Amino acid sequence: MNSFVWTVVPADVGPLFLAATDKGLVTVAFHAEPAVRDRELRRLAERLGGEGARDASGPLAEPIRQLAAYFEGELRDFTLPLDWSLSGGFNREVLRELAATVPYGTLVGYGDLAARVGRPGAAQAVGAAMGANPLPVVVPCHRVVETGGKLGGFSSGLDTKRKLLALEGVLPEPLF
């Protein structure tokens, strides 16, 4: 039996790799060209055990629908079951706080998010948690910025972060 299902779908920011278990969406990966897809498949097989099957139906049908609606500007809140098994401890705590308290079209600072989970001064650890987020877009790490409004980092590149923030109306659309 397969421990997860996966697919690659087109998006405005490039192809997305999606995987789900029977608990819910477990990962989203940007720039899902074959090398990224293969790396994600190896990582999931190692972390979740078993092999995955390519299947855009079943547990992935609703994530595909909601992501398409998000990129069309028609969805602001994801209502998906999430499988948090690829994150734990502090990272999971910060990511859950982010998902629950930073709505579409808003920003939060790394330090502010650290304070929200009772760890003021842990801004760098929050940054590491954002970089390790297995569910970007759905758990909106692109909404976390440096104090003073600088974009900060983004594991999938600042161009991708800018596009997501422009989609949400936080930044102007890129000219090119």
Radius of gyration: 16 Å
Strand composition percent: 5-15%
The helix/strand order is EEEHEHHEHHEH
Would you count the extended β strands for me?
6
Q: Sum up the overall morphology in one term.
A: globular
Oligomeric state, counting identical vs distinct chains: single chain
Specify the number of helices: 6
Helix content, binned percent: 25-40%
The end-to-end distance, rounded to whole angstroms, is 46 Å
Nearest-integer average pLDDT: 93
Largest beta sheet: what is the strand line-up? 3-2-1-4
Q: Biggest sheet: strands, sense, closure? A: 4 strands, mixed
What is the SS-derived class?
A: alpha/beta
Low-confidence stretches: none
Describe this structure in words.
There is one protein chain. By secondary structure, this protein is α/β, with parallel strands linked by helices. The protein has helices at residues 34-48, 61-71, 89-101, 110-116, 123-131, 158-167, and strands at 4-9, 16-21, 24-29, 52-54, 108-109, 144-145. Helix 3 (89-101) crosses helix 5 and helix 4 crosses helix 5 (123-131). The N and C termini lie far apart (46 Å). The mean pLDDT is 93.
In a nutshell, what does this entry contain?
By secondary structure, the protein is of the alpha/beta class. Helices cover 37% and strands 14% of the residues.
Attribute tags:
176 residues; alpha/beta; 4-stranded mixed beta sheet; 6 strands
Reconstruct the topology from this structure:
Blueprint lengths: L3 E6 L6 E6 L2 E6 L4 H15 L3 E3 L6 H11 L17 H13 L6 E2 H7 L6 H9 L12 E2 L12 H10 L9
Parallel strand pairs: 1-4, 5-6
Antiparallel strand pairs: 1-2, 2-3
